[in-house]
Task: structure prediction
Amino acid sequence: MQVTARRYRARVTSSAPRGRRLAVLSVGFALTATFAPFAQSPAPANDALPASATSTALRINGKQVLAISLDGFNVNVLKRIGPRGTPNLHRLFRTSASTKNARTQIEMTVTLPNHTSQVTGRPIDVANDGHGVTWNTHLPRRTIQSHGAGPIESIFTSVHGAGRTTALFATEQKFSLWKRSWPNAVNRSTIVQDGDHAVTLAARRDLLRRNRAFTFVHLGAMDEAGHAHGWMSPRYKRAARLVDAQLGILLKTIRDHRRLHDVRIVLTADHGGKAGARDHSNVAEYANYRIPFLIWGPGVDRGDLYSMNPTYADPGTAQVGFNGDPQPIRNGDLANVSASLLGISAVPGSLWGQDLSLTWHD
Result:
């Protein structure tokens, strides 16, 4: 039986050990050279800081996190296609701290609610101290705050408060919710409906021109193909190859430009999808709530995230509720993993990983 997030929060606040750290996931395109984390290099000059910037901004100067979410990513597609079809994803998993058995949010397995959990570190339902985003459509006049969830903060607002800038690149118009909800903290927002390649190129240009602390990239081709043709269909596999190619573009950009050699990637997904199905809303379906979580970059050890984090537990095939102890790694850990990688405090009001304990080291 599920208990509330308030009860879960009280337990982790009182009993979780300190020192663990969290992480975020990312995506890309085919690379021909050997792919491995890069040595750290000196950081360039920071973007202009606001007059109110604190000493925290100086501590995170130059650090960069690239968070990537692969919409509708069923990790079994990697076996179906193999390393020739998705070479970048295979290399990322091989050279990172990762798991292919993380979890979505407990309440829903749909896109906008789960993505909002990724950047806020909160559950979905307001009754569980969640962000309150239960809709999954583009509502151009709505914000998170106007919907009655209160002053919900995010990794965008945390980075902004530390004097650095952020960017959002997404392939669905409904992500404009974030820019409306945090207008001063989402400094750059580019949304191209169903435009994975266009979004990737826009993100690439921004990475080269700006020293953002946090960049979020959403790639939606697999979700589109799953809804239209079924998860694991030939079209879905083709979409997985397309997404892998975009990953390659971003990874090659990082590899080829010394200024980006300190970028850390956090990669995850909002939900999966059952083979043959064209919907993923059933919260009791393993293929829907099973997702990956990956942290890659300089200073990140290679290996299994659960082995590195004994206070988290691999859930097997179960979807663990709020009363589960220990908890699995969730896509909602992305916000505070990013904060931990940047050396700033946890997102205010967050639940998942709010003790900054998820580590990427053996």
In short: The chain has one domain: 19-32+59-342.
